[in-house]
């Protein structure tokens, strides 16, 4: 896979340590990434980079006007080709709160959990090579 074909993920979390951990997990999975500290910043990143992003990985509780559930709905409506993972250690989604195609993962998570989740949810054409090769 050449650098130009390595997929991008957008990671959204207001906790710098969780952001660092999550981007490391996704980098190990074969993604390049953009970062945003809240949903409003994520919308700005998406507005200019949506064509290269195949995955949104977002926390739920963040400052600003857009929480993770609202961000997921925004992405699903405007860019339906972007896959969506929402994560939280405090909030579980209620019926109808997330778009149908979005998936939820509980915090704390680890590399193996996230990688397995991504292998199960991502279509083959969006799966980075390292995840395709992993057992």
Automatic annotation (TrEMBL):
Highest taxon listed in the record's lineage: Bacteria
InterPro entries hit by this protein: Bact_response_regulator, CheY-like_superfamily, Sig_transdc_resp-reg_receiver
4-aspartylphosphate: modified positions: 59
SMART domains attached to this UniProt entry: REC (SM00448)
UniProt-listed GO biological process terms: phosphorelay signal transduction system
Cell division recorded as keyword: no
Keywords for this protein: Phosphoprotein
Keyword flag Electron transport: no
Domain Response regulatory: residue ranges: 8-122
PANTHER family named among the record's database cross-references: RESPONSE REGULATORY DOMAIN-CONTAINING PROTEIN (PTHR44591:SF3), STRESS RESPONSE REGULATOR PROTEIN 1 (PTHR44591)
Name of the molecule in the record: Response regulator receiver domain-containing protein
Species this chain originates from: Sphingomonas aurantiaca
């Amino acid at each position: 896979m050449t650098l130009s074909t390595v997929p991008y993920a957008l990671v959204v979390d207001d906790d710098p340590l969780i952001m660092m951990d999550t981007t490391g997990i996704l980098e190990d999975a074969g993604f390049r990434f953009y970062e945003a500290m809240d949903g409003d910043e994520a919308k700005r990143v998406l507005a200019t980079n949506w064509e290269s992003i195949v995955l949104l990985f977002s926390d739920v509780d963040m400052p600003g006007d857009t929480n993770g559930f609202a961000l997921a709905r925004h992405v699903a409506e405007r860019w339906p080709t972007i896959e969506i993972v929402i994560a939280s250690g405090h909030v579980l989604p209620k019926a109808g709160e997330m778009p149908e195609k979005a998936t939820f993962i509980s915090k704390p998570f680890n590399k193996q959990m996230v990688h397995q989740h991504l292998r199960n949810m991502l279509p083959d054409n969006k799966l980075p090579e390292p995840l395709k090769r992993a057992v």
